[in-house]
Design goal:
single chain, about 425 residues, alpha+beta, Adenine-n6-DNA-methyltransferase TaqI, Chain A, domain 2, 9 helices, about 25% strand, Restriction endonuclease subunit S, Restrct_endonuc_typeI_TRD_sf, hydrolase, nuclease, endonuclease activity
Length: about 425
């Protein structure tokens, strides 16, 4: 059982609180050296090399050169990976998207302390978050006077966090399997229907395979009309007005469907209605992101599943059904591997992949009569809602485990618990 230290004193830092009587409050600049990594050209990267290249999100590739060969702490300094922390020993190249830390004390202990600080909160609030070495160096931490305690705390946290990480990994693996199950249900239903005994036939398209013989096959252009989203920037977004969904949110938050009744959307002022009516969505309208940073994101879309009028924002293509087909069926069809593979085979790009009106209009759709469309979409809704419920429970469990992990780290590195006599359990 983990105990507390016998005597504590006030650390002088409000969020740290009380610390063991023989611990010391010290600024990080006295415990480490910190500098920015260096950029590396793509010509110096190759899978044939052995030395890892690290940025803010871990290993980016391999090279045959290095700018450090000691045990170093690497901290992400730019963008979404701000505050990410990795500890790596041996030869490595650390890019300018990361900070390189050389510790003067036990590296594992300092790594855990840095994780407890949640360094991303120190980044500036510009469009591209940035973390600087000077901000980190001036943070206070507390350390024990006995250097052996550094190792004991690090060993304790290694053991505990590895156990927690193992459980998290198992739950994340289960989530991925559930997502694969969802995808399989969608793919089967929108390409074969619900009746396994229905006659099938080939439509002369190699990748299409056999589909029910009574289904129709048409190009996108004959089923949907298209228009563009608003020509705005982030500066035009406000907290109240007409909800608007932008391409970034399609990629990161509201893929597949969006509902302003439950989703937190930014808005534009009502004046946009008069001059931009074609960009205003009705229930069942689709919005495709017109650019993606990777090929896998090509074809990402959402559809409005609400009666609340909502604008499509910047970098989007709107698609509206021109008949009374079931929009929910086509939402699942667009989310199928069969359809997304079409998009991915048509887009071109290197760092940015663009989806054009022409690309969408040239894709091939296949579908049953309206009544059967509705039966298929209701069947998929029923199946995937059960899957989403399971995923939601797992995600909540993972969140709690991560919070528990963070609390254990914080308690150990601030001396709230005494692990000096702790030993791992043996089998």
């Amino acid at each position: 059982m983990i105990k507390k230290y016998k005597t504590y004193k006030d650390s002088g830092v409000e969020w740290i609180g009380k610390i063991p009587i023989d611990w010391t409050l010290v600024k990080l600049k006295f415990l480490m050296e910190i500098k920015s990594g260096k950029s590396i050209s793509t010509e110096l990267l190759s899978d044939e090399y052995d030395i890892p290249v690290l940025g803010g999100n871990g290993i980016l590739g391999k090279t045959n050169n290095y700018n450090s060969e000691s045990k170093d702490i690497i901290i992400g300094r730019v963008g979404a990976h701000c505050g990410n922390i990795h500890l790596l020993n041996g030869k490595k190249w650390v890019t300018d998207n990361a900070l390189l830390v050389k510790s003067k004390i036990n590296e594992e202990f300092l790594t855990y302390w840095l994780k407890s600080l949640k360094l991303n909160r120190l980044a500036n609030t510009n469009a591209q978050p940035l973390l600087t070495g000077s901000l980190i160096k001036n943070q206070f931490i507390t350390i024990p006077t006995d250097s052996q305690v550094f190792t004991q705390i690090a060993n304790y946290l290694d053991y505990k966090t590895n156990l927690i990480d193992s459980i998290i990994a198992q739950k994340e693996e289960l989530i991925e399997k559930l997502k694969e199950q969802r995808q399989a249900i969608i793919n089967e239903a929108v390409t074969k229907g619900l009746n396994p005994n229905v006659p099938l036939r080939a439509y002369g398209i190699e990748w299409l395979g056999d589909i029910p013989e009574h289904w129709k096959v048409v190009k996108f252009r004959y089923k949907f009309e298209t228009s563009k989203g608003l020509t705005i920037t982030k500066a035009n977004l406000v907290d109240e007005g007409i909800p608007v969904v932008n391409y970034g949110e399609i990629h990161s938050k509201f893929g597949f469907e969006v509902n302003p009744e439950i989703h937190n959307l930014k808005c534009v002022i009502e004046d946009y209605i008069e001059s931009n009516e074609s960009s205003l969505l009705s229930k069942g309208d689709f919005v495709f992101a017109d650019t993606s940073e990777d090929i896998e994101g090509s074809g990402n879309f959402t559809h409005l599943n609400s009666d609340i009028p909502t604008f499509a924002g910047y970098h989007t293509i709107i698609a509206r059904l021109i008949d009374n087909s079931d929009y929910r069926y086509f939402a699942y069809f667009f989310d199928s591997t069969t359809y997304r593979t079409q998009i991915q085979n048509l887009v071109k790009g290197v760092k940015v992949y663009s989806i054009t009106n022409k690309i969408l209009k040239d894709t091939i759709l296949f579908y049953p009569p309206v009544d059967e469309q509705k039966n298929i979409s209701e069947y998929i809704d029923f199946k995937v809602n059960k899957i989403f419920s399971s995923i939601e429970k797992l995600e909540k469990s993972i969140k709690k485990l991560k919070e528990y992990r963070q609390s254990i780290i914080s308690e150990a590195v601030t001396g709230k618990i005494d692990v000096r006599d702790w030993k791992p359990k043996t089998a």
